[in-house]
Amino acid sequence: MAKIVSVHSFRGGTGKSNSTANIASTVARHGHRVAIVDTDIQSPGIHVLFGFDDEKIERSLNDYLWGRCAISDTAYDVSHVLSHSPTQAGGKIFLIPSSLKAGEIARVLREGYDVGLLNDGFQELIETLELDYLFIDTHPGLNEETLLSITISDILLLILRPDRQDFQGTAVTVDVARKLEVPKMLLMINKALTSYDFDAMRESVQQTYNVPVAGIMPLSEEMIQLASSEVFVLRYPNHPLSKVIESVAQQVMA
After folding, report:
1. How far is 163 from 90, CA to CA, in rounded Å?
2. Which residues pair with 156 in a beta bridge?
3. d(Cα 122, Cα 146) in Å, to the nearest integer?
4. Which of 223, 218, 214 is CA-nearest to residue 249?
């Protein structure tokens, strides 16, 4: 039975898409068939980590939502990125990007789309690609698409920074997720200064939300220098940051 994992943050700039790419790639390295759907249609970006630009994207999630093709036609096999690091047999990763074209983004903002099609598309992807895990990179904040993603998720992973606005927004999201009876919730704190007491931060956040903190990601100079040009864990598999990602991936797979 495939698991649907929604990766969400209440505000932008938390590193949500980067975290999604790294965790999904780590799960794939363990021999699983994984797909990532970029449902952040208003501001797509996860494709960059897999070497995609506007010219390489022939079909996108937008095409499926507007009836131009089947959603499986928008899935790109990007498993070649896994060749740079040890991967167990069977590991595959697919990407379903959103359109980078200004006109397509403007149309979404102007007309919206049938959110109900997303659920149908997710199930089709799971069956067609024979997935073990489907990761949904959501749009920040709470909207119709986000609520659907949370509702159908087996796991909701919330990304937040050690920032008061993020803490307050995450509290709202946790409350909504509980009302929607999400089976499993995890928190991941990103961009934490190395001078912080991580153990004290973990304990405080877990007590505040009553949700496990799957990992605390320190602010990393190497991550900043990579500038989303690659998937970090594949470029630096032995980096301390990659060890945190591995721990989070293990909890997702548990």
Report:
1. 39
2. 6, 185
3. 14
4. 214
For 99-213, where are the alpha helices, taking DSSP H only?
Answer: 102-111, 116-128, 144-152, 164-179, 198-209
Does the CA dihedral 76-80-85-89 come out positive or negative? positive
Of 238, 200, 206, 208, the residue nearest 222 (C-alpha):
238
- This prediction has a pTM of 0.95
Q: Tell me the CB-side half-sphere exposure of residue 24, using CA atoms within 13 A.
A: 35
Over residues 176-223, the pLDDT tens digits come to 999 999 999 999 999 999 999 999 999 999 999 999 999 999 999 999
Which H helix or E strand runs over 217? strand 213-218
pLDDT tens digits along 154-174:
999 999 999 999 999 999 999
Strand pairing class (133-137; 92-96): unpaired
From the list 55, 38, 34, the residue with the least C-alpha distance to 47 is 38
Rounded Cα distance between 32 and 82, Å, is: 12
DSSP secondary-structure letter at 200? H
The kind and range of the H/E element at 192 are strand 184-192
Distance CA 171, CA 245 (A): 23
- Both tokens of 194, joined, read 């190395």
Tokens of 203: 């304990």
228 and 18 Cβ atoms separated by less than 8 Å: yes
| Cα 231 to Cα 247: distance, rounded to the nearest angstrom | 17
Report CA Rg, the chain.
17
Token pair 């590193």: residue: 15
